[in-house]
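Protein Record: Sequence and Backbone Structure Tokens
======================================================
Tokens: labelled as protein backbone structure tokens, with as many entries as the chain has residues.
Task: work out the structure tokens from the sequence, keeping to the layout shown below.
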Amino acid sequence: MRRSLTSLIALGGALAVGLLAASAEAATLYVTNTKSDSISIIDTNTFEVTGTIPLGPGKPNRVVFHPDGKTAWVVYDKSRDLGIVDAETQRLAKRVRIGGNPYNLAFTPDGRYLYVLDWSSESSKDEIIIYDLKAERVDGRIEVSTWPAHGVFSRDGKIFYVTSETAGNVAAIDTGSRKIVATVWTGGDAMGVTLAPDEKILYAAAGEAKSVVKVDTATRQAVGSIPMPGITHETTLTLDGQFLYVTLRKANKILVVGTADDTIVATIPQPSYPDLVVMEPSGRYAFVTNRHADVVTVIDVKTHRQVKAISVGKAPHGMSLRPR
């Protein structure tokens, strides 16, 4: 009897640990719907939409969470301002106008500054607008090549890599001096960028050049090019760095590249216009916005196969995971 009781207690403890582990893997994914003026909230465990946040007019596009997970910041394409969403109340708290023509955005790893990728307009140049969250004001600007589109910070926040779409290059910006320290030509129209887990290689989609360019972050030189059978847009690595997911929007495909030898190991058909890719925290699934199908698809990373299509609002584009 005592042995049975001990076994039950042990089993209960194991189940509790298992439930905690499963719960720890759950995440909240925000998806901006550009033609519904809203955010769809997806539970990455259940693959269900758990809520919708109205954002108001202005064509909300990109979205990114602050590192503390309390707020999500949204770019509005038409109204050219930013929205701040309270993640606890799931409501739009306020909108902020910083000038220019914002297209994309990224927080510094410490959460102090917001880097806004700004396209030239009547009031600004092609540049990075640096917004100080504590002071609530623009703190600086860094001029870059035409149409800055995608960006990623090094883990320590010392370097910000940004692609300029129509210029076809990637710039490395020293965030201390706020100056460009290197520019790498990619060809085509430079799009999505991602860093390998060890940060030794930067992968950059080269758009109409139909390739992904590999950049050595130490020498800041291109060290290779991976040919693609179509125009490339987004590049996203699996969490273990073994596979690179590349979206081919016009071809309605995702190409999976094995990073060990840069060969294409799988092709994943998509409903219509696959855009951005996000890996959820457990590393098991990838989520993909399909803008012209009004769905977010779920890809099993082990099999490289689509397992579900989640209906969201109209024209989903931006995505961001809420940090724990």
Q: What stands out?
A: The CA atoms of residues 233 and 269 lie 15 Å apart. Confidence is low (pLDDT under 50) at residues 1-23. The first helix runs from residue 2 to 25. The helical segments are 2-25.
